[in-house]
Amino acid sequence: MELIKIEQRAIGDSQVQAINARVLHVFLEVGKDFATWIKDRIEQYGFLENQDFVTAPQNGGAVYKGGGHNRKDYHLTLDMAKELAMVERNEKGKQARQYFIECERRAKAIDPMAALADPAMMRGLLLTYSEKVLSLEAANAELAPKAAVVDRIVTAAEGTMNVTMAAKNLQVQPKVLFTWLSAHRWIYRRAGGTAWVAYQDKIQQGLLQHKITTVERTDGTEKVVEQVLVTAKGLAKLAGELGPICA
């Protein structure tokens, strides 16, 4: 039974399972109006456009909670949708999160090797593992925090991930990690640019990768998207240097 409609959509450089945020907003029975709610959540949790979600002018004539003109839709990855459901802390949120996890499980069951080739699915696996680690840490408070961080790094060592996902695995806010990386000369922005770029020495050390892809906009035009990826080696080094923050 389809509890919330899931569709394939281009987010970042991959076709991934996505949720219309307006549909999720209605299902969760959020008290705030949609525009305020989604903007607050994006700001509060550091979600990034073209990594965690994409936007598009609303169309199709569907009726959603709230009103107004010139509205736009937000299409969310399942990872972002799970987090939004979880932070609502109500029965609807729990129901939605369990539904998304089940949808991911079914998708992976169709092709168990797909997660190794699809960065988006890899991010989903890493987030799911992080949630399991958090549960284990809560159940066993005597575990050394450093050991828990190392455990996450070992499991995440299969591939690269974006900075937002790296922050989730390190258990720091994405904004904190972006600020730290910039201050310690891991990443920078070109003059007049908005995209983060990896410093060449960090690329040569195998700590970061700098990915450039071309994505198609909703109007059919194309744009170049630059993305910094953290390697397993980089994640391990960050865990050591951010030890007091990650603990």
TrEMBL record:
Residues 137-242 form the Antirepressor protein C-terminal domain. Residues 19-90 form the AntA/AntB antirepressor domain. It comes from the Bacteria. One of its GO terms (molecular function) is DNA binding. It holds the Pfam family AntA. This is Phage antirepressor KilAC domain-containing protein. It comes from Aquitalea aquatica. The lineage of its organism: Bacteria, Pseudomonadati, Pseudomonadota, Betaproteobacteria, Neisseriales.
